[in-house]
Amino acid sequence: QDGLKQCLSEFKQQLAWVERLDVTSGQAVDPVSGSASNKDALDPENDFQREMSFYRQAQAAVLEALPRLRKLQVPTRRPDDYFAEMAKSDQQMQKIRQKLKSKQEAMERSEKAKQLRAMRKYGKKVQTEILQRRQKEKKNMLNAVKKYQKGLSDKLDFLDEEQTSSQGNKKGSASQRIKKGPNAKRRYKNQKFGFGGKKKGSKWNTKESFNDVSSFRSKVAHNKGPGKAGKGGKKALNKRPGKRARQKMKSRAR
């Protein structure tokens, strides 16, 4: 111990406090409890308590040193144009940013994959439920048909249910079509050419048209009108000449 004290006195320099800036103090007062924590009460194995004791001691040293520095007119605030070199280079920080970005992208991809898997599971579940319900309805209908065939039941309610369900589906699809309406191309063509009229069955006779014979002309109908020549009339005039006649006409043209 004497030797240590002698060595300390040899290299110790008698300098002013502003050159040394050494402060020895206890812990600062806890604002919650209103008292400084006891060293004996601290558990050294407890990381949180140990770090908090270091923090409180540093806080007490700052509270003691700042007034002394102000008294000595030493500036304690950093200037606005102060430039400090970073501990790590820009290249290292860029690598760190890229790594963090890749981690974030990987997390987003895994989250999306989880959501897709969950949606597929839900869709599969709904599909199986629908199939099970259809199979159950089919089974019930077959059982009802068998009972009716054997004479155990005289009710035909299952046919009415099937009809109502099919009508409901048709109504639903019709309402969807009405809501959807024609597309832009169809609307333009309707505006340009109109909607036309009834095409299918438009030439069918009705009771009134069948009984109406005012426009009937026997001469025109039987090829007996004026200007009709020969036995065949108009048909004879429009008849195609034979092969020999066509060949003669070709030879004359040459």
UniProtKB/TrEMBL annotation:
Keyword set, alphabetical order: Coiled coil, Nucleus, Ribosome biogenesis
One Pfam entry name: Ebp2
InterPro entries: Ebp2
Biased composition (Polar residues): 164-176
Ranges where the record places region Disordered: 25-47, 98-126, 158-254
Biased composition (Basic and acidic residues): 102-114
Biased composition (Basic residues): 115-124, 177-190, 231-254
Segment forming the signal sequence: none
Residue intervals passing through the bilayer: none
Coiled-coil stretches noted in the UniProt entry, renumbered to this chain: none
Subcellular location: Nucleus, Nucleolus
UniProt-listed GO biological process terms: ribosomal large subunit biogenesis; rRNA processing
One GO cellular component, as annotated: preribosome, large subunit precursor
Function per UniProt: Required for the processing of the 27S pre-rRNA.
Family: Belongs to the EBP2 family.
Protein name per Swiss-Prot or TrEMBL: EBP2 protein
